[in-house]
Amino acid sequence: MIPVVETKSMSDDVASAFEDFARAFEAFKDANDTRLSEIETRLSSDVVTEEKLTRIDAALDDAKRRLDRLAHDRSRPPLSRGSDAAPRDPVQAEHKAAFHAYMRSGEATGLKRLEEKALSAGSGPDGGYLVPDTVETEVLRRLSAISPIRAISSVRVISGGQYKRAFSTSGPSTGWVGETAARPQTAGPALSEMSFPAMELYAMPAATQTLLDDAVVDIDRWIAEEVEAAFAEQEGAAFVNGDGTAMPKGFLASDVVENDSWIWGRLGAVHTGGAGFPASNPSDVLVELVYALKAGYRQNASFVMNRKSQSAIRKFKDANGQYLWAPPASLGQSATLMGFPVVEAEDMPDIAADACAVAFGDFKRGYLVVDRAGLRVLRDPYSAKPYVLFYTTKRVGGGVQDYAAIKLLKFAP
Question: Is 288 helix (H, G, I), strand (E, B) or coil?
Fold first, then answer.
């Protein structure tokens, strides 16, 4: 991978963004302290103070978006023709050259010959042609950077249509015995199987023939940039709320029960007692949510919520008057809540009656993303003339793999 050369202007932008973010957060704390003081003295806050706090809160979110955008931009290699260099592997080099010829002019002879040689199924005009490994790697790297749930989950690459794994619903019987005591036979573990099928996800970027004829344009980088946003948006929604029909199954699509009644196959939820946070000591339910998770999962746990939920939680303080929410310490890092990273997933529901608006858990152990190896492109110069469409598909699946690793905060009695 080509290293990122950080220019002076980029460094200046990062410093400026952090200064803006720090100023906005200090202003937010001052305004919120004023609001809390007014509530203590008058039992209600001034309308002007509330409006000021809302404006500062919006400015804080804008500053965070700018930081996130800078982090994403800095993670990209510089746009150059460096990736057009021929790979050392002769087969990869041949595949790359044939792919570029297909993308620029529609000449598919080279790709047909390569995929026939590899006995690749589903290739040709019906299924499209496999992109070079470097392009697929670049697309997946970009998705990991901007798809929030993928970034914190386990990822498996498979060659078939689905991934299966066994799990133990009950472990073997064990016990203590003396040195010379008889060893009674123990029961074996009860095993079950989980299946994660890979579903088809597509994007259809368009290009002019003039762009494709330009030898300076890096075709690999262009296709990666064009599909990253479309894939990340669809993935992000499915990993949270997908119903498992022609798409991955999101973790919020799982059956939910009160945490005291938790059993395998369902996600445990801590209830807030109403359609919002409690009026008195609202942060107590967050503490309860954290300790609803077993200690073995807490060390790598994260909060997952959308910006509106984060905006509400940002106002909470502990018993010592310290804010529970803290801004990121550096570019590319997450804000923290009670010391745990906060992952922003805009597909999480807003705070409302019966909504599971906040999730907390070790998503590396709790949620699995399955990528089927192979990214395909089908060139279509006819459907949208004078533009050339590139029907790009990848197969991805997902689902909860450990129901004990994720807990939810449900806004319900």
Answer: helix
pLDDT of residue 197: 95
- Number of Cβ within 10 Å of residue 369's Cβ equals 27
Q: Is the dihedral of CA 20, 23, 24, 25 positive or negative?
A: positive
Max CA distance (Å), the chain: 86
Q: Are 343 and 152 in contact (CB under 8 A)?
A: yes
Which segments of 208-261 does DSSP mark as H helices, in order? 209-213, 219-241
Per the CB < 8 A criterion, the answer to whether 141 and 155 are in contact is: no
State residue 5's pLDDT score. 43
Compute the C-alpha angle 217/221/222, nearest 5°. Answer: 65
Q: Which residue has the tokens 């509106």?
A: 308
Sequence ranges of the domains in the chain = 15-75, 89-167+191-248+371-393, 252-367+403-410
Measured distance CA(202)–CA(303) in Å, rounded: 29
Sign of the torsion angle spanned by Cα atoms 257, 260, 265, 270: positive
Give the count of beta carbons closer than 10 Å to the beta carbon of residue 181. 8
Q: Is 182 helix (H, G, I), strand (E, B) or coil?
A: coil
**pLDDT for 152:** 96
The distance of Cα 406 from the centroid of its chain, to the nearest Å, equals 15
The helix-helix angle for 219-241 and 133-146 (nearest 10°) equals: 50
pLDDT at residue number 371: 95
Angle formed at CA 161 by CA 405 and CA 148, multiple of 5 degrees? 40
- Chunked in runs of 10, what are the mean pLDDT values of the chain (413 residues)? 45 68 78 75 69 78 72 53 54 84 87 68 59 89 90 94 81 75 74 90 93 88 90 95 96 97 96 94 96 96 96 90 88 88 96 97 97 92 93 96 96 95
Write down how long the chain is: 413
The rounded distance, in Å, linking the Cα atoms of 398 and 376 is 20
* Ramachandran angles phi, psi of 375, nearest 5°: -115, 130
pLDDT at position 3, please? 43
Q: Are 125 and 210 in contact (CB under 8 A)?
A: no
Assigned fold of 252-367+403-410: hypothetical protein PF0899 fold (3.30.2320)
